[in-house]
């Protein structure tokens, strides 16, 4: 699977899968379905009030609908963290190719080239389909020029898959009770960093995550314990302590 490296708010680099052609098409279909429903509702309202509605009023409604359709992607992506409603349902979002949050200019750039990617006379989406299919990072023309792409936002590791992944003995004694200062998302991130390390062998991920975790819960790594063992112990302690609280 193609992936892109993103620096999280905790300054930890995590690899995310790049959204493929299927996710893009499905998200677009959801957005278009929403517009179809809105168009039907608009026509029903206009039809029901045609006796009282002047031609000018009907024209105004038409242009309002057209403006919403044209600016929908741009406004949604700027205000919804790189997502439209369709992208949100499919759990994908726009991201800069360097892993940072897109700038306002990048959103504008990829929106301006929607006409070429999807519009007439450019094959009603053929340009976008071909570009996404053949480019390394699954980018349409607007993405290539804006230096953006779409990633899958769904975490590779859910807390439910982490919480009881350790077979700890009943007499297990947590070493760091301070882990209760962490939240579920912190634990997911630690587990994700460990997963990335096991897959890539990149120790920088471990050092950075261990440093952030130590600073957050205000503990020191004991003598004889390395950063990897520290993070694994943090997960075990958290799972043990939160499981007992639940009981």
Q: What's the layout of helices and strands?
A:
Elements: E1 3-7, E2 13-17, H1 21-48, H2 55-79, H3 85-90, E3 92-96, H4 104-112, H5 114-118, H6 126-134, H7 141-146, E4 148-152, H8 159-162, H9 184-200, H10 203-217, H11 227-246
Antiparallel strand pairs: 1-2, 3-4
Helix pairs in contact: 1-2, 2-4, 9-10, 9-11, 10-11
Description:
- With 247 residues, the protein is mainly α.
- The chain has 2 domains: 3-152, no CATH class; 159-246, no CATH class.
- The chain contains 11 helices and 4 strands, in the order ββαααβααααβαααα.
- The strands form 2 sheets. Strands 1-2 form a two-stranded antiparallel sheet. Strands 3-4 form a two-stranded antiparallel ribbon.
- A hairpin with a 5-residue loop joins strand 1 (3-7) and strand 2.
- Helix 1 runs antiparallel to helix 2 (55-79), helix 9 packs antiparallel against helix 11 (227-246) and helix 10 crosses helix 11 (227-246).
- It is elongated, with a radius of gyration of 24 Å.
- Mean pLDDT is 83; it is low at 157-164.
Shape: elongated
Structural domain tally: 2
Low-confidence stretches: 157-164
Strand content: 5-15%
For the sheet with most strands, the description reads: 2 strands, antiparallel
Question: What is the straight-line distance between the termini?
Answer: 40 Å
Question: What's the order of the H and E elements?
Answer: EEHHHEHHHHEHHHH
How many helices? The count is 11
Mean pLDDT: 83
Number of strands: 4
Rounded to an integer in angstroms, the radius of gyration calculated over CA atoms is 24 Å
Q: What is the share of helical residues? A: 55-70%
Class inferred from helices and paired strands: mainly alpha
Strand order of the largest sheet: 1-2
